[in-house]
What does this fold into?
Amino acid sequence: MRRWTWLAFGLALAATAARGADYKTLRNLNAGPPTQVAPAGAASVQTVQFARIILHPRDGKAWALAYSSTGFRYAEDGTPNFRFLTWQNGAAEADLSGFQRIFDEELKKAGFKSDSGDSLFGEGASSANLKVGVLVDDISGRFCLDCPNPFNRQGIPATVTMNANWEIYSALDRKVVARVATVGGANYNGKLQDSVLPAVFEGFRENVRQLLAGETFRKAVAKADPVTFAAAPQALMTPIRLAPGAVVVSLSEATNSTAVVFASDGSGSGFLISGDGYLLTNHHVVGGSKYVKVKWNDGSEAVGEVVRSDPRRDVALVKVDGHGRGPLSLRHDPARQGEGVYAIGSPLGETYQNTMTKGIVSATRVENGLPLIQSDVAITHGNSGGPLLDEKGQVIGLSVSGMMVNGAPLNLNFFIPIEDALRALALTPAPADSPQVAAAPPKAPAARKR
It folds into this structure.
């Protein structure tokens, strides 16, 4: 798919030839009155991000008529030589900026929650759970480039209409939850000079209004709201004592208690630290989400609730059903330079879930007043929040960041010491149990004879 810029309009206008068969349709193009959008009301609604627009009119179609009393040459009989714009770009992804501004303006006017971002369903752009994308598969326009002039129809410099196919995507559910088709446009009364974009934006605005006024959109945003989660200062947190469990102390079994964590804009990793379903991860993995989806190594999934978070220390605590999985054993002795360590995580997402890599503790550091473990063990995007284990399978830290130059890793990776993570979230370790190697996730117990 081509990345499309507004230069396409200018090129088409300069290069295309007249098509008499399209003249009548485009010359009489007009748009109806704007749609009135009822206020969203006081009911809680999810935050929405406009994330993508793709244009795909039929290639070779004369989609717009442009005319001018001075800018175009006349035929020998004195009739104006109208210009037609044709589409030659295939499916083209448009620059978001102008469309996003229009979408956010209408969203806010109607009382919905907007959260703009720069990426579609990717990492780190926004805490919005609902992403909106649109495919425009038909567009028609009529533009007078130097109005008023003798050929201006009804004093309207421009009209643009379009067919828009909307998709609403839930980052939490990782699927499209609603589809809406709109057909609308607008008459533009401003002056057009070097660009037809102002008129195109107004045609798009009418389709946004139709989307927001419809029952399908309103039902989608009114569903369970993953409200913005504000982390409480540590001093105000009520201490939580972690429950004991069948502590995992074997490297080979540690992946059973490590999971992929899906939040609003991407994914990271996390691991169980208690027998009652507390899972530790990074704050930057959960972002502003109140709820996340957790996927275990056997493919089973569960929705977890972010119960507390510390942005400065970059740690978060999620309550989730562990389905009988045991927590990882937490080591309370500090990391030692030169000791062997293992990282578990999901580099580049769920495709490589529970990848294990090996390295050593390179050093211990203090950055911005916070202790860090430095290691050459390999990690990348998606490892964030996963455990760093010693050679006995005990957790000594969790992945947080790495250094790169021009996209190439430097084997300078950093981990939050487990004791510091517990302290930041006001967590008290479980009483020491007799360690035992946890088996694979338990199956349903067989019926016992009485």
